[in-house]
Amino acid sequence: MSTAILVVEDEPGIQEVLKFNLAQHGYEVGVASDGESALSLLRGAMPDLVLLDWMLPGMSGIEVARRIRNDARLKAIPIIMLTARAEERDKVQGLDLGADDYITKPFSPHELLARIKAVLRRRAPELTDDPVEAAGLRLDPVSHRAFASGKALDLGPTEFRLLHFFMTHPERVYSRAQLLDQCWGDHVFVEERTIDVHIRRLRGALETSGHDRLIQTVRGAGYRLSTTLN
Amino acid sequence: MSTAILVVEDEPGIQEVLKFNLAQHGYEVGVASDGESALSLLRGAMPDLVLLDWMLPGMSGIEVARRIRNDARLKAIPIIMLTARAEERDKVQGLDLGADDYITKPFSPHELLARIKAVLRRRAPELTDDPVEAAGLRLDPVSHRAFASGKALDLGPTEFRLLHFFMTHPERVYSRAQLLDQCWGDHVFVEERTIDVHIRRLRGALETSGHDRLIQTVRGAGYRLSTTLN
DNA sequence: ACGATTATGTGAATACTTCATGACACCGGC
DNA sequence: GCCGGTGTCATGAAGTATTCACATAATCGT
What we know:
Two copies of one chain form a homodimer.
Chain A: E1 4-8, H1 12-24, E2 28-32, H2 35-44, E3 49-53, H3 61-70, E4 79-83, H4 86-91, E5 101-104, H5 109-123, E6 132-134, E7 137-140, E8 145-148, E9 151-152, H6 157-168, E10 173-174, H7 176-183, H8 193-207, E11 215-218, E12 222-225
Parallel strand pairs in A: 1-2, 1-3, 3-4, 4-5
Antiparallel strand pairs in A: 6-7, 7-8, 8-9, 10-12, 11-12
Helix pairs in contact in A: 2-3, 6-8
Chain B binds a DNA duplex (30 and 30 nucleotides) through α8.
């Protein structure tokens, strides 16, 4: 599951550099040169993050951000704004316009990538490749492996995604519908009760080490991963 | 498989010193004295790394870097920038996103070689000529040979590249698409399923020594070399 | 407290997907 | 033409996903 980033930037040079650096680090990159095409691209395929230049021909970056935030389907997408100079950053009437972070040009690739990771971690922790740990469980997306008390777990792909999501969002209840959205995809037609079966299989895999207790049922609401036992 | 380096440097003295030192250590060295000739050389033969002076007659080093990054065929080439003074280094780093590393003159040959190796290892560890070892497997790019528990393996060129890549990137899952990019090249049109066949051939070669278990299938994700057995 | 009602757990059947494997065709070099 | 190396395909095997039917458990109104 690779992370998709939409770059909205009119200057071809910077566009290319961004594209290159992001692709180099495993992101799937889409590009738009102005606000209108960015928005129409967004309606087609939802990326996991938008890199948005502040100065754009036609519709300004701020306007684009505003429209994204006003669209029910898009509003949850993290936005990082690229601003030309530090002074302009102050002009921006703040983060309330919808951007999750700002980067002022010129910036280093290192800074860019760091901020992207930070924003993603904040907004969608399961999209990072960082290893996750919780209560004796460890999951490493890079090697695609999970361990319970140091012992490797045998998980199917779906169970792996489920556990990954739960571990990156602990102590929080998710309805079956939410879990379907997060671990299957938005437009999938699957019975909600199917979740139950995968939960059972996940519990089954965690059983030998006793970690199955972490996956808790919240009657009438959904499921939760919690280190606090009932 | 010798590593080719293109040196772009206008001052004849430094040019000679670089050429000598690099050749001394087994690199194949190409030389250009200005940006234009560098670019035209690049279109002819793609080196594995570019040593690029920041101050050049005519087109600046930064501009050359930018053009390299804008060229689809060249963009993946690692670049090390040579800058005259430490102060300039900061300037450059902020402005330019294309270089992989910087060296400030004057520099010792030792530092130069170390950085080259580091960059190559970071960008494409399988391009280094260092022998690799993992779990009883040993692979030496220089002699183009691989051993399992001391016994020579009979590998085709493709299987060799695959094994080399896996050994330089262990404990990490790669999708078939990624493996195609890494071991075949981006612009190659090959069925993804073909990977399966080469994996089998590689496993077949490793079988007699039992090392075939290291090449693991990750269902739904790709393949992985891991010393941790399932 | 009771049964009715609703929600969840579980095992098994079935439909799918993905992967391993062997056979074979192709291609360039000798 | 032979040969090693390579890419493609067909097929069967293995592994997963989804659904269903029914068991079990929690909740609610009376």
